[in-house]
Write a structure and sequence with these properties.
The structure holds two protein chains of two kinds. Chain A is α/β, with parallel strands linked by helices. Helix content of chain A is 38%, strand content 24%. In chain A, β8 and β9 form a beta hairpin. Chain B has one domain: MetI-like fold (Orthogonal Bundle), CATH 1.10.3720. Chain B is 80% helix and 0% strand. Chain B is globular and about 65 Å long. The chains are: A alpha/beta, B mainly alpha. Chain A: Belongs to the ABC transporter superfamily. Chain A: InterPro entries: AAA+_ATPase (IPR003593), ABC_transporter-like_ATP-bd (IPR003439), ABC_transporter-like_CS (IPR017871), MetN_ABC_transporter-like (IPR050086), P-loop_NTPase (IPR027417).
Chain lengths: 245, 234
């Protein structure tokens, strides 16, 4: 797949908001996610980071505003979904082998049966899981499970990968493995959109930063600019490690 | 006391010698209950999954009704199926009354709510866990149902075996719609009821021993299955 010319990106959000029973959890978010870069979403707990990811991915419908995939004219909802992948904080793996977890999504994507095994093994091998292919996915360690979730996403060949605090439950070496995996995706041209609480990780990975607070977009700027001198008081306080909410 | 001891020893003799008359009865029991459970699973598993995954007006009431039906009295089910299948009934023209088919139908009605209610619970719990991920993967509705049924396979098998336990142990429904005809519709439970009232305690006890053995074996299988599944699949 040629991700440069064929991508569903950019994704444009125009005044996107989300409310539950009158409580506005996210409001007035307008931004543009370009292909190729790594966007890190930062903000205190409850700022709406995970919510923003779920709205972008289409797991939730915005209650206000519009979402538009620039390169996806004429693609149906499900076809659009299949060009995106998401890795959750706690990986949800099926009760079958690691290998079968990957071939399962290839089946969903309509890959012919004969091609699945090779593609699945390639994805597992890429993330150092080839030896564990036959093991039941749910008895793998936390780090291995998250790498399997990444291998599964890799096999889908997405245009964009959402990651919702993928390393917050992992030890340092597993975190490193996940960051290297994210790097692999980036090098392959996959757009990265990720939330994290780990500022060090954000500095290591970010090309640009989206800073949310209390359900509002406060800043969206290149990473270098953001970390050197954030414009808003909230972001300055957040970076300085103050308790903001 | 003496009677009981004598009956027990001749019962054991019947069991160990694999008495042909007894084997006919055991075979029919297993066939009838097995077919009923198979039918109930074919209908009940997708029905349970559908109830777990879809939302429509009256869904809650239907769930409550199905849960309540898990405790249906077998004699009442037998009576209703009897009325449906009797000559004057709406399904009378098929001539099914007092045949094994009628017994399978009645037991299917008994087992179906158990399979549907338990599989609804299993699938709902799995959906809670998998829902977001499966939607993220773009799984279609039929793919979701198939995935959840397969991933719940061990729990669902437990539900099905629970249904088999209920079917093989009940006497009221098969007695009414089968008629307890020797060699045709006589099952272990109806034979036990009859032989006890006739005073042939040996055959009744022998069948009772086999029935208990069967139910114990089924439950042991359920236990082992769950144990192995938890260890292997997490």
């Amino acid at each position: 797949m040629n991700r440069e010319t064929d991508s569903i990106l950019p994704l444009e959000l125009d005044g996107v908001g989300y409310a539950v029973q009158g409580r506005r959890l996210l409001q007035g978010v307008s931004l543009r996610l370009e292909a190729g870069t790594r966007t890190i979403v930062l903000g205190p707990n409850g700022a709406g980071k995970s919510l923003l990811l779920r709205l972008c991915h289409g797991l939730l419908e915005p209650t206000e505003g519009l979402l538009r995939w620039g390169g996806a004219s004429g693609l149906a909802e499900q076809a659009l979904r299949r060009r995106q992948a998401m890795v959750f904080q706690r990986p949800v793996l099926l009760r079958r082998s690691a290998f079968a977890n990957v071939t399962y999504v290839l089946g969903l994507l309509g890959m012919p049966l004969v091609a699945r095994a090779e593609a699945a093994m390639a994805a597992l091998d890429r993330f150092g899981l080839a030896d564990l292919a036959a093991r039941p996915a749910r008895v793998l360690s936390g780090g291995e499970q998250q790498r399997l979730a990444l291998a599964r996403a890799w096999a889908m060949e997405p245009d964009i990968l959402f990651l919702d605090e993928p390393t917050s439950a992992l030890d340092p070496s597993s975190t490193l493995a996940v960051e290297m995996a994210i790097h692999d995706f980036h090098v392959a041209g996959v757009k990265i959109v990720m939330t994290t609480h780990d500022l060090g990780q954000a500095r290591r990975l970010a090309d640009e930063v989206i800073f949310l607070s209390r359900g509002q977009l406060i800043e969206a700027s290149p990473a270098a600019t953001f970390f050197k001198g954030p414009v808003s008081g909230q972001a300055r306080a957040f970076l300085a490690g103050e308790l903001v909410c | 006391m003496l009677d009981l001891a004598a009956a027990l020893s001749s019962a054991m003799a019947l069991v160990t010698s694999l008495d042909p008359q007894m084997l006919v009865i055991v075979r029919l029991s297993v066939l009838v209950s097995g077919s009923a459970v198979l039918l109930a699973a074919v209908i009940g598993l997708p029905l349970g999954a559908l109830l777990a995954l879809s939302d429509f007006p009256g869904r809650g009431a239907l769930v409550v009704a199905i849960n309540a039906c898990m405790g249906l009295p077998p004699v009442v089910v037998g009576l209703v199926v009897y009325l449906l299948l009797s000559r004057a009934g709406p399904l009378g023209e098929f001539g099914l009354l007092f045949t094994p088919s009628a017994m399978v139908a009645a037991q299917t009605v008994l087992v179906l709510p158990i399979v549907a209610a338990l599989s609804r619970q299993v699938v709902a719990d799995l959906w809670e866990e998998y829902g977001e991920q499966l939607r993220s993967l773009g799984a279609s509705r039929p793919a979701v149902v198939a995935t959840l049924l397969w991933d719940g396979r061990f729990s669902l098998l437990t539900a099905i075996l629970a249904g088999f336990g209920r079917a093989s142990a009940e006497v009221g429904a098969v007695m009414i719609v089968g008629g307890n005809i020797n060699g045709v519709t006589r099952t272990m439970t109806t034979a036990i009821a009859l032989e006890t009232s006739k005073g042939d305690l040996a055959l009744a006890l022998g069948l009772g021993i086999i029935l208990i053995g069967l139910v114990t074996a089924v439950n042991a299988a359920v236990f082992l299955l769950g144990h192995v599944a938890r260890r292997r699949m997490g």
